[in-house]
Amino acid sequence: MSLPGWKQLPIGVVILNPGNSVEYKTGEWRTLRPEIDQEKCIRCRTCWTFCPEGAILEVSEPYKTKAGREFKLTYKVNYEHCKGCGICSNECPAKAIAMVEEVI
Amino acid sequence: MSKPITVWDLPKEEFLASGHRMCQGCAAAITFRHVLKAAGKDTIVSMPTSCGEITSTVYPHSAWRIPWIHVAFENAAAVASGISAAIEALKRRGEIPKEKDINVIAMGGDGGTFDIGFQALSGTLERGDNVLYICYDNEAYMNTGIQRSGATPLGAWTTTTPVGKVWRGEWRPKKRKDLIAIAVAHNVPYAATATPAFPTDLYAKVKKALSIKGPKLMHVLSSCVPGWRIEPEKGIEVLKLAVLTGMWVNYEYENGTYRVTTPVPKRKPVKEYLRLQGRFRHLTDEDIKKIQELVDAEVEKINKLVGKQVIGPVEG
Ligand SMILES: Cc1ncc(C[n+]2csc(CCOP(=O)(O)OP(=O)(O)O)c2C)c(N)n1
Ligand code: SF4
Ligand code: SF4
Ligand code: SF4
Ligand SMILES: [Mg+2]
């Protein structure tokens, strides 16, 4: 990341690209990684609702469980930004999210 | 009555971008996400210094996908009033279409609301400015390292209410000042409490508040991992317990009428809420009894306001 010199700064040091914090990858903070078991997930949106990072992605990807249950949605984790807090796992009513130690 | 809002009514679009530097498991971030989902893109936020401010706008980054202005600790409400007045002036001059709705929200911490920005807040409410003021309350000055505020609850450890032989955490023997009653005393049309642990309730209240012209106030309880001494995954669980024990009541005031939005027919003992948090670790059973009595009195007060027993007794 290169920082501008003071003469290049916009007046008022206004940030002209709102939402550009996504360039900063908070996923590096993580020591525990949430892993969603698609077989157990009941697509209830709880994890998506409570993630402080907005790092649970709700994607229109169909999924059929081994027992034959069909879903139109799939929940995935944005690991670039997930900080590994564990709220999603703690709140998941289906106990479908395991917190797994990150190994480098 | 309209259909109750469910999680499926929450818009998918995110106006708080990832990459902000709030701690792992910070409930303020969840609060901001849902406030913005309810307010939508035509919203301007004024924010005083606080955790929310420093972590979301670390130069050269901003996590806000809407216009957002950082102001001093004292004047978030005053700046929001100014923005609201400017929008009206631009509409008069024809530079903004008259029918365009632009939401103006001032959002500050408990330090910035209960203490340091209190005068500006009173001014905004008293003048009747078209602003929604939201206090996200983590019950201390967290950003500067956990100092007590006018919102810190009895018994809570902070760095300025330490725990030792003489000091036993926060000492104020009474319930902290009542922000909703203060707003109501300013004759506002709408005031409400909420917590991100009940996100649809929070969302519905922000929506309702923004549909009303004039000054509105919301008081939102928001857990803090280092300040409350909790595990990062417990932020929502502890806030749910706050409601289930009656330590916090989700209610709203609208034009003279009070309504509890999360009824709790049978309360859990307040001990269950306190024991989850390291900031209350030193409390004896005697101390907890005192806090339980404060909670009982507050619950009774709210039941009286709504005119029936919506929050029940502690289950045996
Ligand atoms: C007038 C003034 N006094 C003190 C500070 C230092 N300061 C910045 S943020 C902060 C604490 C904010 O507490 P609160 O409003 O509760 O928000 P939180 O950080 O807890 O979310 C303090 C003391 C300041 N910026 N300006
Ligand atoms: S909370 Fe659990 S069950 Fe619900 S969508 Fe997320 S992973 Fe699936
Ligand atoms: S662990 Fe925390 S940051 Fe990561 S996806 Fe779950 S709730 Fe979001
Ligand atoms: S100190 Fe508390 S309020 Fe501040 S970012 Fe961390 S968890 Fe959130
Ligand atoms: Mg605070």
Q: Describe it for me?
A:
The complex is a heterodimer of chains A (104) and B (316). With 104 residues, chain A is mainly beta. Chain A has a domain of 69 residues: Alpha-Beta Plaits (2-Layer Sandwich). Chain A contains two helices and six strands; from the N terminus they run E-H-E-E-E-E-H-E. A two-stranded antiparallel ribbon of chain A has the order 1-6. A two-stranded antiparallel ribbon of chain A has the order 2-5. In chain A, a hairpin with a 5-residue loop joins strand 3 and strand 4. Chain B has 316 residues and is an alpha/beta fold. Chain B has a single domain, classed as Thiamin diphosphate (ThDP)-binding fold, Pyr/PP domains (Rossmann fold). Chain B is built from eleven helices and eight strands. Chain B has an eight-stranded mixed β-sheet, sandwiched between helices. In chain B, helix 2 links the parallel strand 1 and strand 2. In chain B, helix 1 packs across helix 7 and helix 3 packs parallel to helix 5. Chains A and B meet through helix 1 and helix 2 of A and helix 1 and helix 9 of B. Bound molecules: thiamine diphosphate, iron/sulfur cluster (3 copies) and magnesium ion. The site of one iron/sulfur cluster has 13 residues of chain B, from helix 2 and helix 8.
Radius of gyration of chain B from CA coordinates: 19 Å
Which assembly state applies to the chains in this document?
A: heterodimer
| Ligand catalogue | thiamine diphosphate, iron/sulfur cluster, magnesium ion
Q: Write the CATH fold name of the domain at 36-104 in chain A.
A: Alpha-Beta Plaits
> Looking at the structure, what is the overall shape of chain B?
globular
CATH architecture of the domain at 36-104 in chain A: 2-Layer Sandwich
Helix content of chain B: 25-40%
Query: Whole-number radius of gyration of chain A?
Result: 18 Å
- Tell me about the largest β-sheet of chain B: 8 strands, mixed
Question: What global shape of chain A is seen?
Answer: elongated
CATH superfamily descriptor of chain B: Thiamin diphosphate (ThDP)-binding fold, Pyr/PP domains
**Arithmetic mean of pLDDT of chain A:** 96
CATH class of the domain at 36-104 in chain A: Alpha Beta
DSSP strand tally of chain A: 6
- Unreliable residue stretches of chain A: none
